[in-house]
Amino acid sequence: MALMGLAANAQTWTPISQHVTGTDFLTGETVSTQEIMVDSGKALLIDYSATWCSWCWVMHQNGVLEAVQESLGDQVQVIWVEADPSTTNPAEITGTGSTRGDWTNGGTVPYPIINDYNFTNITGGTSSVDGYPTVVFISSTGYWCSVYGTDWGFGPYSGSEAVTAITNLIANSPKPGDLMGIKCPAVGKINQPVTFIADYIPIEGATAEWTFQGGNPATATGDTVTSTFDVVGTYNVTLNLTSDAGSYTKNATITIMPYAYYMDFEDETECDNWTYIDADGDGRNWSLGYLRGQGAGHDGSNGLIGSASTYRNSSGQWVALTPDNWFFTDAIELPDNDNLTLTWFEKGQDGTYFAEKYRVYVATAPTIDAATEIGHYTTTKNWVKRAIPLGDYKGQTVYLGFRHYGSTDMFYLDIDDIAVSLEAVVGINSVSDITMSVYPNPASDKLSVKAEGLRQVDILDIAGRVVATSTTNTVDLTGISNGSYIVRVVTNEGTAIDRLSIVK
Ligand SMILES: [Ca+2]
Ligand SMILES: [Ca+2]
Q1: Is residue 447 located within the same domain as residue 484?
Q2: Which of 271, 387, 494, 496 could disulfide-pair with 427, CB 3.0 to 4.6 Å?
Q3: Distance 261 CA to ligand 2 centre (A)
Q4: How many Å lie between the centroid of ligand 1 and the Cα of residue 410?
């Protein structure tokens, strides 16, 4: 008993993904997790099983689910789910076909049976099912943990053991007033407010008090607060939540990167207020979502922005476009810093038809008339980093513009990771031809660098200290700890930088 109590205390609680509904195979009635948890205040015990599964059948024969439903039914609702997408014959549930037997006990089991694997969406879909059976306990407050194999084991167990384990889980599950954590980004931008949210189970009269190492303000009170950091570094954030339910503390860290602006396109909503101009008037323009989720972005990320110079018509034929497509970012307040550098990554998406042409602008308003060209480029089939000094625009409010123009009948122009860096990047030509690649990224013990006219490679920590240096195209990383770093590559043409993660 004591061991089971300890196991329950050690549970990891994960917020549910969504509420779900299903149809009870026995009664035809709708089963709604929202009604059970929110309206009735009950926890859920869900058994994701498969009709062919022998261990599931052992648990069934031992009457584990019945025991929990009958002993704890005022606090817990048991649900049995046929969660194998490949099970298509409902008759297997009542003992006909490829099945272990009658899972309904002649229609007498005291809990609903859901023959729909979509019911697993409450815990994140079938990927949350770690084999059959997977038994999950879900608190009425909306947090779940897996219980089969930890509390109950795979050996002989009984209904009474299950009742004890679930009683302990109810006692230890997240309650109103419990502090679950701090929601905040892992990386913030220098001189820009970072939002922090207290993630706790709702309770009246809770007070959230924050302290921010290196932040302004250094303390704050409220469920959602912001603080701004004006020095690159990694800082501790502490949250204390006090309510009638008690006082809890959680910690987080935030790493502030040396960017005045940074757009990785992983959250499309950050581009909601951008300006798009289809100057050629063909109804086609830059798109944020056309390849989302396929790892097509820079560094294998999912988000990027792209524009096409060809398309496939409804007959399946490729038709050439002559794009003159513009986008302007939101207004960016550039800090008063001589070292400001605009960097981004470009790629022609097709391995053969990759030569896309485009131009880059700084604008005083998000219009073509207010835009000044600062560089023009032709893409290759690889991700290439480009850089332009922006020191001439320090202290100004500007919009960055990209224009897909001058190419036709290629495929897609891809742009990703647009940043305005505060790093001291010197010697870069106004139209930069410096191309470099660093790999692997993340790296562990050794980094390789490819760049024409390479003279020196430095690895800097986020405070700007050089932690490794090399005059060849490899850098020894042994002795450098895990974290975020900057690679500075000095070539005959100038200097370029890139981000680097070191993971041992
Ligand atoms: Ca167009
Ligand atoms: Ca991206």
Answers
A1: yes
A2: 494
A3: 14
A4: 14
Residues 269 and 396 in one domain: yes
CA of 277 to the centre of ligand 1 (A): 8
pTM greater than the 0.70 cutoff: no
Residues 425 and 445 grouped into a single domain: no
Q: Do 154 and 225 fall into the same domain?
A: no
Provide the residue range defining the domain that includes 236: 179-257
Q: How far apart are the CA of 302 and the centre of ligand 2, in A?
A: 6
Q: What percent of the chain has pLDDT over 70?
A: 92
Q: Give the single-character DSSP code of 37.
A: I
Q: How far is the CA of 299 from the centre of ligand 2 (A)?
A: 7
Mean of all residue pLDDT scores within the chain: 87
C-alpha 349 – ligand 1 centre gap (Å): 18
Q: How far is the CA of 292 from the centre of ligand 2 (A)?
A: 9
Question: In angstroms, what is the span from residue 497 Cα to ligand 2's centroid?
Answer: 17
- The residues near 149 (Cβ < 8 Å, ≥ 6 apart) are none
187 Cα–ligand 2 center, Å:
15
**Nearest ligand atom owner, CA of 408:** 1
Query: How far is residue 141's CA from residue 175's CA, in Å, rounded to a whole number?
Result: 7
Measured from the alpha carbon of residue 286, the closest ligand is 1
pLDDT band at residue 230 under the 50/70/90 scheme: confident
Which pLDDT does position 150 carry in this prediction?
Answer: 46
How many angstroms separate the alpha carbon of residue 317 from the centre of ligand 2?
Answer: 30
- Burial of residue 102 (number of CB atoms within 10 Å: 0-12, 13-18, 19+): middle
Are 246 and 276 in a shared domain? no
Whether 179 and 241 have beta carbons less than 8 Å apart is answered as yes
What are the tens digits of pLDDT across the range 296-323? 888 788 899 999 999 988 888 899 999 9
Of 492, 491, 456, give the one whose Cα is nearest residue 474: 456
Q: Which CATH number fits the domain that encloses residue 317?
A: 2.60.120.200
pLDDT at residue 462 greater than cutoff 70: no
Tokens of 69: 């439903």
Q: How confident is the model at residue 429 (pLDDT cuts 50, 70, 90)?
A: very low
Per-residue pLDDT, 430: 30
Last residue of a domain, one of 433, 457, 490: 433
Q: Are residues 302 and 347 in the same domain?
A: yes
Largest interatomic CA distance in the chain: 82
